[in-house]
Amino acid sequence: MIDKEDFGPITRSRRRATITSAKSETVKLRNGAIAAASDLKSGPKARESLTKNLQLNEDSKQKCDRYDKISCHRLQESMLSSASSFKNYRGILNWCVVMLVLSNARLFLENILRNGILVDPIQVVSLFLKDPYSWPAACLVIVSNIFILVALYTERKLAMGSISEKVGLLIYIFNLTIILCFPMVVVLKLPSITPVGGAYALGVYTILFLKLYSYKDVNRWCRERTQAKARSLSRSLSLSNTMTSDDMRIYIYYFVFAPTLCYELNFPRSESIRMGFLLRRLFEMTYFISNVLSIVFQWMVPIIRSSMKPLQEMDYSRMTERLLRLAVPNHLIWLIFFYWFFHSSMNFVAELLRFGDREFYRDWWNSETITYFWQNWNIPVHKWCLRHFYKPLLRRGAGKLLSQSAVFFASAFFHEYLVSVPLRMFRLWAFMGMMAQLPLAWFVARFLRGNYGNAAVWLSLIIGQPIAVLMYVHDYYVTHCQDDPTIAEAL
């Protein structure tokens, strides 16, 4: 005896075959040419079977459509999940801005009720000038034209072949060394220069040093390619060679004032000056610098004054509390300064000069590593370091780690140069802070990824800077103000 169950798999396989053939015939019917051919070759029974299968398929499709209309579930992720494709968080960003404004408004009102209005225009002016009839920092900036003209004269003699490359290199080394040493000596020896005025003058000379270094390198590269008869730069070099002395003087001053540190023979230029864009940037510059001054006098100064006694007594609990209180206004100033300098001011200058390359920063706020932050928050300096320092070291056989360490060392030197010299004291807090970025960058890249790495970058910015500020202010008070009874009483 053969059981009916033995025919079960065969029956099911035949049923599957029938359904599959019906589906294939249905697909064929949708094509007009195939349907016509099948009608001619098939008999009445076959056509009737196909019609029934087609009708069944239509009924099944209608049932599925009705089911889809009443179904309320499908395969999907939550919006806040990382697997979701949702990216519009504008409402949450607006909420954060509203909460930030409300919280800072409360602190602002509390500060005014406790301390009164501390912003004094005379104090603002005194940050830059001790004597309104004496402007030593501005005079120091004007003197910097001598070094620009020396570089221009040296380059003209090198282009004409009047001096050799070795002699030109010695002149450049002497000129660049004096650019760094001369303002430092003047600031240290001239008491009439205030710390803020000295920092401004030293900042101008530092920028001039980097620009003239790039000017030297690019012109040397062009001379080497001219001697090698390189065709790629023949047009640019011919334009440079046809410049008169006045044209060369105008072009180097254009480069000095342009918002870039890297010299080129032909800069990209915009078509015209947009007055609306220019006025908006000017308004932002005025508005944000007034905000910075208000936060410094109204918010930071009282916190710093109240921090001197805990620092002297080494009261770690109160020191930590003052540090956290100082972190908020310090970070606000840093963010406002970033927007004021890298967006408003540099775009204002670029628009005036019709300078075309406006990439002054990238998305550093999305940094997941310390290295990515330093590569993207200050693009002019990053381009200069990459072009004139990092890549030449690699070409000379240095490894990547050594080259990166050298770049951080140079950056640490200039940070300390711009802080310690105007304050007339050398404590190396800025230098050590920059060098500490190397092990921090290794740790974040090795152990933290994604949002955790981004949080570590933000934490280093928010906490690291107030520590250096407190250290410098404390040392400045101990060095210059501790013996002054009026200042000691105010603190």
UniProtKB/TrEMBL annotation:
Membrane-related topology note: Multi-pass membrane protein
Record has Membrane as a keyword: yes
GO molecular function: diacylglycerol O-acyltransferase activity; retinol O-fatty-acyltransferase activity
Cellular component, GO annotation: endoplasmic reticulum membrane
Active site annotation, chain numbering: 415
InterPro entries named in the record: Diacylglycerol_acylTrfase1, MBOAT_fam, Oat_ACAT_DAG_ARE
Transmembrane segments: 133-155, 167-187, 193-213, 250-267, 287-304, 324-342, 426-449, 455-473
Catalytic activity: hexadecane-1,2-diol + 2 hexadecanoyl-CoA = 1,2-O,O-dihexadecanoyl-1,2-hexadecanediol + 2 CoA; 1-O-(9Z-octadecyl)-3-(9Z-octadecenoyl)-glycerol + (9Z)-octadecenoyl-CoA = 1-O-(9Z-octadecenyl)-2,3-di-(9Z-octadecenoyl)glycerol + CoA; all-trans-retinol + an acyl-CoA = an all-trans-retinyl ester + CoA; 1-octadecanoyl-2-(5Z,8Z,11Z,14Z-eicosatetraenoyl)-sn-glycerol + (9Z)-octadecenoyl-CoA = 1-octadecanoyl-2-(5Z,8Z,11Z,14Z)-eicosatetraenoyl-3-(9Z)-octadecenoyl-sn-glycerol + CoA
Cell compartments where the protein resides: Endoplasmic reticulum membrane
Metabolic or biological pathway, per its Swiss-Prot or TrEMBL entry: Lipid metabolism; glycerolipid metabolism
Any coiled-coil regions, as ranges: none
Swiss-Prot/TrEMBL GO biological process terms: triglyceride biosynthetic process
Keywords, alphabetical: Acyltransferase, Endoplasmic reticulum, Membrane, Transferase, Transmembrane, Transmembrane helix
The family this protein is said to belong to: Belongs to the membrane-bound acyltransferase family. Sterol o-acyltransferase subfamily.
Self-association state and partner proteins as the record states: Homodimer or homotetramer; both forms have similar enzymatic activities.
Protein name (Swiss-Prot/TrEMBL): O-acyltransferase
